[in-house]
Amino acid sequence: MALPRLVDYSSSDDSSSESERGKDGRNNSRSSNNRSSNSSSGQDYCSDSSSKGEEDAGHVRGGWSGHVYLRIRSSTQLHRLALACMDAICPRLDDNIRGNAKSADILDLEKVRTIEEPHISLTRPFYLPEHQIAGFVRELESCLNGLGPLAVGFGRISTYVNERQDRGFVAADVDYGEESVRRVLDHVNRLMEKFGQRKFFRDPRFHVSLLSVDLTPGSNKMSKVGATLGAAMGEEIAHLVAMQIDEVECIFGNKKFSFGLDAK
User: Could you state one GO cellular component term attached to this entry (predicted)?
Assistant: First the structure.
């Protein structure tokens, strides 16, 4: 049965640096006070706007592409988990084994990439005219005032595919701390509405993407990936410790703004 298409991952690589995507080549900026389904056995059509395609980069469709997300700084254990997932789904098959395997069951290591900057998205892809960006950033900083740091833990590995079905994602779903993330999201949603933008999804599954996978549209590889990881990664994810998040980042084109989550 077809799965619901909840969000729209674009076809670009989530590991691409957002700071390189503007049209004017300016350096990243920081604000003045230094302050942005299914289980692992299946797959969802879901996305976060971190994986904007090249068509979403820079100044397009009458505005600059934007993205607001919770930045995870201490990501060593997530990186280790990503590598463990890659090892589980991309065994180093020798020529004889590979020659006897079905091509549909093999993932090419060159088509699987780790996500370089783990984060939890709070917005879908959106665009603002340049003259509105400064106001949006000021109001984002204001609406986050008084929100303290939060801790999140992860309870399972899930797989996602984009609407075009040409890119899949392996992600760790947020288990502990989901309500804290939702409180931050509520503030961001109100700001998005104020600027005439779409809110985030009604019943979001907060997650951190670990790997991106190039797919042939129509293939069923992510379902196989989910089944493999469901059996292999249970113990790995159970050993993850909760992570503190104390920063929200906002990106427009190649400009990045960071906001600390510091309780009053």
Answer: nucleus
